[in-house]
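Open question from group meeting: does this chain pack into something compact, or does most of it stay loose? Before anyone orders reagents, we agreed to write out a predicted structure and look at it together. Recording both the input and the output here so the notebook holds the full record.
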Amino acid sequence: MVLLYFHKLFNINTICINRSLEFIKIYTQTKCRITTFGCVVAWSSQLFLSYSNILATLGGTKLLKVYFILRRTLVYISTRRSGLFKNMHNPLLLVVSLILSLLCVSAKENILVTCGSLVKLVNTDYGVRLHSHDVSYGSGSKQQSVTGIKDITDGGSYWQIKNEDKNDYFCRGEPVKCGKIIRLTHSASGKNLHSHHFQSPLSHNYEVSAFGDNWMVICSDNNWTRETLIKLRHLSTSGYLYVSGSTYSHPIPGQFEISSSNSAYGSSWKVAEGVFIQPSEQPKSFYNTTHEEL
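Structure tokens returned:
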């Protein structure tokens, strides 16, 4: 219940809750008694060593706020419950509450999807990764085609997350908020994920190509995380990035058609592999705001 309260208060997701519960379970199963101060010190020291890098990224105000709320809650539990919390004394409350604070905040910080990150996006309905290559559509726009592939090792499935083209400051490390407008730039070709009113070859939805355009990240939380299911809505056509389930033959046999559609099934995506840029402490004005198109 304590962790669910923090999920609501700080938008901490289920990864944080599961990680904290895992460590509580490990602690309760240890052979050491909770009244043995030496055991408490050894156990807590091991956790602090594992998460020592978190201290460098935490804001003092946030840490203290989480810490004192947890401490008051655990004191309340210790006076009204039997078992694990029955004989807990103040020093142990300090250790446990601080550790839970560190675990929760670190879990939230480490799973954010940030601007500048290089990611592979997997469609959760069909299990294919968003892909592009030096193969153009034979009809429609005749631009560079975008497909879905099952191969998880193909380097042609990496996309860099960039800011929308109307406000293209260097946003390296900035968390991507739900509702943010982004561009996805294909790593190998340098072209952007694009859609328009040309019909796609197989399903006759809106064609998706690698040329240049803006997409809105649709998700339910405040920020896009590595565990979040998202939809990508194309601003010009209002369609969602979509896997139709149809596959191509020559010259890209077995690859899935990617299009833009309003269909619910086939339009859910999740981050798979990637190189994730850590959130930056620098203000936006620190970076050079000029750029050149490829």
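Observations to bring back to the group:
Residues 177 and 223 are 4 Å apart (CA to CA).
The radius of gyration is 24 Å.
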